[in-house]
Amino acid sequence: MTLLIISPDYASHLFPLATLGTAWQEAGERVVVASGPATADIVRAFGFERENLQLGRGSNPGVIRAEAQPRGEDDALRGFFAATRLGMVETLRFQAEARSNDLLWNPVQIARSVQQLVERVQPDQVIVDHLAFAARLGLLAAGVRHADVVLGHPSALPVVGEVYGYPPTWPSIFRPDINDLAALRLLCEAVRDSFTAQWNAALLELDPQAVPSTDAFRETGDVLLLNYPAELHSSARGLLLPEHAFLGSAVRSEATDAEVEAWLEESGEPVVYVSFGSFLSVRGDVLERVVAALHGLPVRVALATGSTDPTSLGPIPTPWLVRGFLPQVRLLEHSVLAVSHGGNNSVTEAMTAGVPLLLLPFSTDQFAGAAALDAAGFGETLDPNIASTDEIRAAAARLLLLAGEPRGRLRHLGVSLSGGTGPRRAFEALMGVRTG
C-alpha cells in the first residue's frame, strides 16, 4: 500500500503532515511526500520517498526571511509583518486582501501537476493539506478520493454563519472597533465570493461537468481530519462541521541535540520555552519585552529567536539557552510554561506535553485558538502590540502557579494526546478509503 502526502513547501505544515505518515511507515507501507525543495531535508529525515511539487511562490525550511523569498513574495511578507504591528483587524484585513495570491496560485497548472503525480506514484491513499486548494482541485477534478487535513484551529474551515478570514471568536483582551469589524466582515465576504469564482473557473476548466461551489473555503475532501484536540473545540460548532475526525495532535520525533540535552541535565530552575514560530519571530520588539519579563522570574529560559538577532533583545542571562532554532517538542517535554504566538504546532505540542501557554497572537486562526485556551483555563492571552513587560511578567507568574482543577485537566489532556495518537487516528480514519 502507498500513501501520498501533499504539502506546501513550509516546515510548519510538513512536520505534522509527515508525522501522520509515520503510522503507515510503522505498518511497513510505502510513504511518498510531494513538496517543494526547501523542505526536502525534512522529508529525507523522516525516511520517506520524495516527489517535487511547488504549490506556491513562497517557501520556509524552518525560519522564514523576506529576503530569501522570490520577487513579489518578499514584499508581501514585509507587508504582512508591518500589518501585525497595527493590530488584529489590520492584520486580518491584509491577509484577506492577499488571499487569492496566497491560496490559488496557478491553480490549473498545479492541479494538472498533481494529477500527473498521482498517475506516477499510483497511491492507494492520499493526504493533502487543507490549504493546498489548487492540489485539492486537481484531486477533485480527477475523482481521486482523498483526506484533507486542517492544520490550524478548526475555524480555518468555516461553518454556517461564518466567513473565512473573520475569526468566530477572539480573546477578550482584544477590543476591536465595531465599525472596523463590520468592514472586515464585508471584506472577507467579498474575498470569499471572488475566491469561489476563481475556484469554479479552474474547476470547470479541469472538469467541464463539475458542479460549481457556493463557497470554496467550505469545500472538503472525502475524509476531513482536524489536527486539533476535540476537547478544546465547541461541541455545538462540531455539529455544524462535515463528517470529520479530530486527530488531537501530530507531534513529531526529533533527533537528539547534544547541546540541548546537556542544558536540560544541568541543575537549576524550572524551564520556560519561548518561540514565535517561523514567521512571527521577526517581531523582535515583542520578544525583547518577553525576555525582560522572564528575566525577573525564577526560571531558566530556552529561547528560539528565529529571524531576530539575539543581540537586539537586551541582556540575556548566561544560564539561558538561546538559538535561532530549537527542538521544540523535546524542550516542551521539560517545560513548565511556554510563551508563544499561538500557532497550531505550538498549541498542539504544548497541550500534548501538558504545558500551559502564555499567548501573544498576531494573525489568522491564532485568535480563535487563543480564545479556546483562555476558556479552558490552559493559557492566558495578551495583546502583543500593547502588553508591557510588567504585564507579561505577571501573566507568566500566574501560569507558573497553575494548579488544582485546570492543572489536572491539562495533565489528562496531555496523556490523551500522547503516544502517537494523531497518526494512529489518521491511519484508522483512512483504512476504508482508496483513491479509486
Summarize the structure.
With 436 residues, the protein is α/β, with parallel strands linked by helices. It contains 18 helices and 13 strands.
Question: Could you characterize the architecture of this molecule?
Answer:
This protein is globular. The mean pLDDT is 93. The chain has helices at 11-26, 40-46, 73-84, 88-97, 99-103, 107-121, 133-141, 178-206, 235-238, 258-265, 277-280, 284-295, 328-333, 344-353, 366-376, 389-400, 404-417, 421-430; strands at 2-6, 30-35, 49-52, 125-129, 147-150, 223-226, 244-246, 271-275, 300-304, 321-323, 335-340, 357-359, 379-381. It folds into two domains: 2-251 and 420-430, Glycogen Phosphorylase B (Rossmann fold, 3-Layer(aba) Sandwich), CATH 3.40.50; 258-417, Glycogen Phosphorylase B (Rossmann fold, 3-Layer(aba) Sandwich). 44% of the residues lie in helices and 13% in strands. It is an alpha/beta fold and 436 residues long. It comes from Cryobacterium psychrophilum.
Question: Topology of this protein?
Answer:
Layout: E1 2-6, H1 11-26, E2 30-35, H2 40-46, E3 49-52, H3 73-84, H4 88-97, H5 99-103, H6 107-121, E4 125-129, H7 133-141, E5 147-150, H8 178-206, E6 223-226, H9 235-238, E7 244-246, H10 258-265, E8 271-275, H11 277-280, H12 284-295, E9 300-304, E10 321-323, H13 328-333, E11 335-340, H14 344-353, E12 357-359, H15 366-376, E13 379-381, H16 389-400, H17 404-417, H18 421-430
Helix pairs in contact: 1-18, 3-4, 4-8, 6-7, 6-8, 7-8, 12-16, 14-17
